[in-house]
Amino acid sequence: MQVLVNKSTASASEIVATALHDNCRAVLVGDKTYGKGLIQSVFELPDGSGVVVTIGKYVTPNHMDINGNGVEPDFRNFPAWNEVNNHLSKCHKQQDG
């Protein structure tokens, strides 16, 4: 599978893309992702103002912190299928080794 990513790929879409990638199910194609890795909530205060609090953080299945960093794709342009197969084969070997 080839997953297209770019600077607009953020938050949950980055996690889905990297989950497929880290589990050797897909290669990432395109541009570096946005790097939105924080989960935030807004709490209203008694005076009507609010405060934003970070309550969680997204990390990839391989425990990479994407916040502020984004994710670099494997390929800038769509690769040939044999390149995808070679890349995923190497990924499987690294996981098995």
From TrEMBL:
Keyword Protease: yes
Domain Tail specific protease, chain residue ranges per copy: 1-78
UniProt xrefs under InterPro entries: ClpP/crotonase-like_dom_sf, Peptidase_S41A, Tail-specific_protease
CDD domains: Peptidase_S41_CPP
One Pfam family matching this protein: Peptidase_S41
GO MF: endopeptidase activity; serine-type peptidase activity
GO terms under biological process: proteolysis
The keyword Transmembrane helix is assigned to this record: no
Keywords: Hydrolase, Protease, Serine protease
Stated name of the protein: Putative ovule protein
Taxonomic source organism: Solanum chacoense (Chaco potato)
Biological classification of the source: Eukaryota, Viridiplantae, Streptophyta, Embryophyta, Tracheophyta
